[in-house]
Design a protein that fits this description.
The chain is an alpha+beta fold and 106 residues long. The protein has one domain. The protein contains three helices and five strands, in the order αβαββαββ. The strands form two sheets. The protein has a three-stranded mixed beta sheet. The chain has a two-stranded antiparallel sheet with strand order 2-3. A hairpin with a 2-residue loop joins strand 2 and strand 3. The chain is globular and about 45 Å long. The two termini are 25 Å apart. The chain binds adenosine-5'-diphosphate (ADP) and magnesium ion (MG). Magnesium ion (MG) binds next to helix 1.
């Protein structure tokens, strides 16, 4: 949508997630911001922030197949949501990626 900070990306994403959740669908919201704050827009109470356990590093597997790099998850999505997703109001669950472990080579 926009890389510009403070332009409403999180507000719009969180509001859409809640509206879709209220319509009866189960929503999985993923906060991939290195400074995550989607929980606030999703209506998670500040007292529940301690429940957020960011996804661990090293979940992505890179394999080279016929000269191409294939990227896949090392664990099934269902398992990750069970272990790491936090229930929010309006039928929404939240997964937080957390900050990068460190800088790599450019
Ligand atoms: N339509 C709007 N009108 C007024 N304030 C808004 C609107 N959308 C977002 N904001 C406020 O602007 C700030 C930045 O919004 P946010 O969604 O966090 O931006 P981003 O994710 O793009 O950095 C927040 O304080 C939010 O409450
Ligand atoms: Mg944001």
């Amino acid at each position: 949508m926009s890389g510009k900070g403070g332009s409403g990306k999180t507000t719009i994403s969180g509001t859409l997630a809640r509206l879709i959740g209220r319509s009866g669908k189960r929503v999985l919201a993923v906060d991939a911001d290195s400074n995550p704050n989607l929980a606030l827009t999703l209506g998670l109470s500040t007292g529940s922030y301690d429940l957020i356990n960011p996804l661990p590093h090293g979940l992505m597997e890179h394999r080279r197949v016929n000269g191409e790099v294939q990227v896949s998850l090392s664990r099934p999505v269902e398992e990750l949501t069970q272990d790491y997703a936090v229930d929010c109001p309006d039928n929404v669950s939240l997964l937080v990626l957390g900050p990068p472990g460190g800088a790599g080579t450019g």
